[in-house]
Amino acid sequence: MEESKAYVASQFLAKTSSGENINTYTLQGAGGVRMDVNNYGGKITRLFLPDRKGELKDCILGFNDVEGYEKVDAYLGSLIGRYGNRIAFGKFTLDGQTYELPLNNDPGGLQCCLHGGAKGWDAFAWKPIPFQEGDTVGVIFTFESPDGDQGFPGNVKVKVTYTLTPDNVWRIEYEAVTDKPTPINMTQHVYFNLHGEGEGTILDHDLTLFADKMTVVNKGLIPTGEIASVKGTPFDFTTPHKIGERIRVENEQLAFGKGYDHNFVLTEPSKDGAPVKAAELYEATSGRYLEVWTSEPGIQIYSGNYLGPHIVGKNGIPYQENSGVAMETQHYPDSPNRPEFPSTIVRPGETYRTVTEYRFGVK
């Protein structure tokens, strides 16, 4: 595919139901990839990727308007915070004090706090600052979360930088500071379908994970504390397997998630803050692939098990189960209640810093 001239363009999208202005920012990369993002929860709403012939298709799930995101809470393309994934029973104890959070999810009938609560950071208007530096384009998003937001302690100032490089890399850099000790575990909840948005399922996509262990969960999808080898199980993606190859086999963990909705532990996680390869996703018909690189110790693979026709996408096509796959880089679920897990606690004077890259190409 021929290289394109890089640019950033913006346009007014809509007002939220609470009257906040939302703009869309188009990032045209010099390498040919193009993406649309907006400041309503830092959502990535379109991602145009070339196939082997250079044909561009939008390869992520989403909506055409803000109203869709407000009405359907599947976290499509959203920044997730203050705490991505689940916290058991919406409670944790920190420095001797117990904090209670909203209970907004109940897999297996066990209630938990999911993705920051009833109104997580995905549901707010962030301050956007678009930028261009030569052939590199992006948007900086900033947000302030007050002490007590969804029950979490501390005033938190957050900055997230989206960068699209000339090499077709979407880099996400997260930073946050707090004035009280608080758990922070941010991620991005984009759903990929490398056939194109609304074009079938991701069950034929080849997935490779550079993770030889997983955090075992109970029926509420909360880690039990056991970190188990994936060898010999349907969770072994250390060599490429199609996502749908083993998703329906009889397995308690798959039954709990109705498919894949599990945290994988990276075999060789980052030791110096530089991203390491966590995953590869490949779709053979188009040749499109992506690599996930991250400084995080884990990656949640969610195979879109609860997507369905109640969600109508950008092309007016109702989604179906497994219409997309989310690959959420993260610390482990329920870490505030699991001192044996890598800590997610950020204290005053510290800076939460993490980076994830989605690297796109064809083969």
Mind explaining what this structure looks like?
The protein has 363 residues and is mainly beta. It has one domain (7-82, 118-362): Beta-galactosidase, Chain A, domain 5 (Distorted Sandwich). It is 3% helix and 42% strand. It has helices at residues 66-71, 252-257; strands spanning 7-15, 21-28, 34-38, 44-50, 56-58, 79-80, 86-88, 91-94, 97-100, 112-114, 127-133, 136-145, 156-164, 169-178, 182-183, 187-188, 191-192, 206-209, 211-217, 223-229, 241-242, 261-266, 276-282, 288-294, 298-302, 325-330, 345-346, 352-362. The strands form seven sheets. The protein has a nine-stranded antiparallel sheet with strand order 11-12-13-14-28-24-23-18-21, with no helix packed on it. The radius of gyration is 19 Å and the shape is globular. The two termini are 12 Å apart. The mean pLDDT is 97.
Highest CATH level, the class: Mainly Beta
Q: How many H/I helical runs?
A: 2
**Content of β-strand:** 35-45%
**What fold name stands as the CATH topology?**
Beta-galactosidase, Chain A, domain 5
Q: Show unreliable segments.
A: none
Question: Mean pLDDT across all residues, rounded?
Answer: 97
CATH architecture: Distorted Sandwich
* SS-based class: mainly beta
In this structure, how is the largest beta sheet organized?
A: 9 strands, antiparallel
Order of helices and strands: EEEEEHEEEEEEEEEEEEEEEEHEEEEEEE
Domain module count: 1
Looking at the structure, what is the overall shape?
Answer: globular
Task: Give the helix level as a range of percent.
Answer: under 10%
Q: How far is the N terminus from the C terminus?
A: 12 Å
Strand order of the largest sheet: 11-12-13-14-28-24-23-18-21
Oligomer: single chain
- Radius of gyration (CA) equals 19 Å
Count of DSSP strands: 28
